[in-house]
Design a protein that fits this description.
By secondary structure, the chain is an alpha+beta fold. The protein has helices at 2-36, 40-83, 98-154, 159-191, 203-212, 215-220, 239-255, 312-322, and strands spanning 199-202, 224-228, 234-237, 262-269, 273-280, 326-332, 336-344.
């Protein structure tokens, strides 16, 4: 309020100064006119004309001042409403005026700032959730390592028992390393720091690369792998990251398929997309949890005892989405699952 009062006083002072200056100039003009114009009639005509011009100019100045003050007051009211988080009451988006245009720009700027603030808060919540999830995932293998180290330091064990404990510790270290590598990939994916090298490449080679990563573990479990893919299928994609995504889905299938089961990969080119189906005879996913499997660190209660951290399918979906594709899943409990990857042809 103090600033507004000071501003109004300044406006009044400026108005008084302008009026005084105009009066002085008018008197000077009258004085010069009275001295240099000899005929009285002409003097009065010129004087009346000058007075009329000055009066008109004065009215115009007063009108202009009111217009500027009104314009400034409306803008200040708009800013006060935006600062208070209210919708401006004096804004008409359909009005074609300078005030409406400036108010519209204020509202655009306000919306951008509000959206930036909302995203910042969302990023903070995401980071907090991520730190909490990482802490939870790291806690178990770290606690196991501390326990085994304590046992080895305080107990005298025979070589067989000692080798068993060391082997278990090695497994926990591998789990931590796998978790860290997965987190690095997830971080690169979410921050957009990984570079996609899109090219029209042979999809058969990409599928073969993905299968190479799970072949050994599938063989150990006696799981039969089969592929139906033409060797000349060309798709615009990033071979490295697409193989990573398909490999994560295949790894998921091997992990949750019982020994002696089957995993089949089929590739079907469509007009706009090329569809890659990865079908397994695993434990299946309850229908209400089909969408949850793509969430970060998401793992169902029925697979809690299985090895994993719940990042594979999350990474797979992110990689495919970045290439303007998508993944869908169909599953029945006890009958297996089919993950369908759609890539732009």
């Amino acid at each position: 309020m103090a600033k507004k009062s000071a501003g109004r006083r300044n406006d009044r002072d400026i108005g008084k100064a302008a009026l005084l200056t105009g009066t002085v100039l008018f008197l000077c003009f009258v004085y010069v006119l009275w001295i240099w114009v000899p005929r009285a009639g002409i003097r009065y005509v010129l004087l009346a004309l000058c007075a009329g011009v000055c009066f008109t100019a004065l009215l115009w100045c007063v009108w202009q001042r009111r217009q500027v003050c009104g314009f400034a007051d409306e803008l200040c009211q708009t800013l006060d409403d935006l600062i208070a988080g209210r919708e401006p009451e004096n804004y008409d988006p359909y009005e074609d005026s300078l005030t409406a245009r400036v108010q519209g720009k204020f509202l655009q700027y306000y919306d951008q700032m509000t959206e930036g603030s909302r995203r910042s808060e969302q990023d903070k919540r995401t980071i907090q959730e991520l730190v909490s999830d990482i802490s939870h995932q790291v806690k178990t293998p770290t606690a196991n390592l501390q326990m085994f180290i304590g046992i080895l330091q305080t107990h005298k064990l025979d070589e067989e028992r000692r080798a068993q404990f060391l082997g278990t510790m090695e497994e926990q270290i591998h789990k931590l390393d796998f978790l860290m590598q997965s987190l690095i990939k997830m971080s690169r994916l979410e921050t957009g720091t990984f570079a996609l090298h899109m090219e029209r490449a042979n999809l058969y080679d990409t599928v073969a690369q993905a299968l190479n990563g799970v072949w050994r573990r599938a063989e150990e479990k006696g799981i039969q792998l089969s592929v139906d893919c033409g060797e000349s299928v060309m798709v615009r994609h990033d071979p490295k990251w697409t193989a990573e995504a398909l490999g994560n889905i295949l790894d998921n299938g091997v992990k949750y398929t019982k020994p002696g089961g089957r995993i089949h990969v089929s590739v079907r080119p469509w007009q706009f997309y090329t569809r890659v189906d990865i079908s397994d005879t695993g434990i299946g996913i309850p229908e209400e949890h089909c969408n949850d499997v793509f969430k970060r660190f998401s793992r169902g209660e029925e697979v809690a005892s299985q090895e994993g951290v719940g990042l594979g399918l999350y990474l797979a979906q992110g990689i495919v989405t970045k290439q303007r594709g998508y993944i869908s899943v169909k599953s029945k409990v006890g009958q297996g699952s089919t993950f369908s990857v759609y890539l732009l042809s």
